[in-house]
Amino acid sequence: MSHPWDWDYLMHLHLSGQELTEEQRTALNERLRKFPRLRRRLAEMAFEQAAMRDALQVSEAVPILIISPEAPEASKQPAAAPLLKPLPPPEPLREPRYRRLIPVVAAAILLIGIVFWAVRGPDAPYEVVNGDVKVEGSKVEVSAAAPALFRMSDGSEATLAPSTSAIFHGRRDSARQVVEISQGAGSFKVAKAPESFRVDTPSGRVLVLGTEFTVELRKQKKGPPALAVAVASGRVRVEHGGKNLELGPGESRVFGAEGVEKVEKKDPAPEKKDLPKEPRPVFNGVVEGKVVGKGDGHLLLSVDRIVSSRKDSSPEMAARIPGRTIKVTIGRRRDGDPPPDKMQMLFVRKVEVGQEL
Length: 357
What we know:
By secondary structure, the protein is an alpha+beta fold.
């Protein structure tokens, strides 16, 4: 009964110089005599080993397996050698299905985010806290009745004066917030942040990092309006006419076509105690008019006519009131009681602009 030898293994042992047993040597010789293809395989392995030894510069002799001179008859066709089947190539590692889906899911989420952003649009750079404001996208126009308060996306606040036109650009260039004022004035309380805050005007621009300041455009008889800047805290840099000027707390400047004018604070005139003060003319009475604006605890009333007046009212003041807009404060009693009158406060909230009172 023949032994099931691994012929490639036996040839490898022989070529590596290891001693074969008599049984192994005999079986390998018999196999080589019967199968020419196995002999070619042995020659190929010897050639490969010799090339490897040359590459490694190894001078060991390769043992040669001597086959006995007995050869099969030439007319007899040698049987085909049963070559060992090569191992099947390893199958590529299959990734788990969920890993193949990760790029698809990520792309879908990104696409949904882009569509949502396109439909919703970016976050608004500002919000109106209070005041009567005409809004057209990023452009705002404050009514002539009262100032308006705005809060920007970075936490900064802007109080725009009546009849002010401005554009809240949001982030632009290297500035985190850019407010463009084309008419009017505004006071700004800028939140501290590494990036700058900028106010653009036709007459120049103001850059800050974190401070409180006021910007006003003053009309001139000739030329563009002058830019008035007053700093309450922190520091600002004003760019005007190709030049830069830094202002600190308490400093004010007016930048006009003729140059920069320093605004000096005037000390109040000393009170003359020896002269009696003239009584201030007042009006006490009932008026009729139309509501043109309202705030928290007050109304702005355009007076049409005077219904009645008390005896202690000044006739001169009474004659000047019709046609003017007055501020009517509601919410505290005349006797000085600190708690507000809830009924009057409710009345203020329910009054609509344009209503006649």
